Amino acid sequence: MSEVVGLTLVSHAMTDAMAAGRFPIDEELNALGRRQLDGLDVGVADAVLCGPEIRAIQTAEALGLTPAVEPRLADLGCGVWRGLGLDRVQPVELTQWLTEPESCPHNGESIVELIARVRGWLADVARTPGRTVAFTHPAVIRAAILTALDAPPKSFWRIDIAPASSTSLHHRGTGWTLRSAVAGQ
SMART domains, alphabetically (predicted)? Predict the structure, then answer.
């Protein structure tokens, strides 16, 4: 029998860009984000990882953890749209991006590319017995869920990941299983 691998993906807490509906930049958590983490318990882990962005690192550190940075947990690259509000993006390009997962009108990373990146990381985690907690971004968690469910990339935007929420997966030899998703506060 294969050993169980546990994975808890924690979405970083609120930032000003999230609150304002802007494409993310590498920014700190805001006051609401820091409050969202009060009482959050991710349990004991054999490995604690995070994306390279400040908001992912600060989320882990606010819980008293010292994560190792894993570049494959980085947020979806939004290219020239970084920091822009939705109202500053051409509607045709925004519609294309939201409906065609292989498109990349912002010259960053497509949804399909993100899913491939996360799929590769999940394959590596599956070979690491024990429990891993990873602090990352809603887009990365969506990609992990799609991989676990073998769902099509077009389903990416149909998954809502709240700030400071956790999603649990487990792996036992044959693939990933979505165990549970817990909304943030």
Answer: PGAM
What is the set of domains in the chain, with CATH numbers? 5-182 (3.40.50.1240)
Angle at CA of residue 124, ends 122 and 126, nearest 5°: 70
**Terminal Cα distance for the chain, rounded:** 37
1-20: average pLDDT: 91
The pTM assigned to this predicted structure is 0.95
Secondary structure in 3-state letters for the chain: CCCCEEEEEEECCCEHHHHHCECCCCCCECHHHHHHCCCCCCCCCCEEEECCCHHHHHHHHHCCCCCEECHHHCCCCCHHHCCCEHHHCCHHHHHHHHHCCCCCCCCCCCHHHHHHHHHHHHHHHHCCCEEEEEEECHHHHHHHHHHHHCCCHHHHHHCCCCCCCEEEEEECCCCEEEEEEECCC
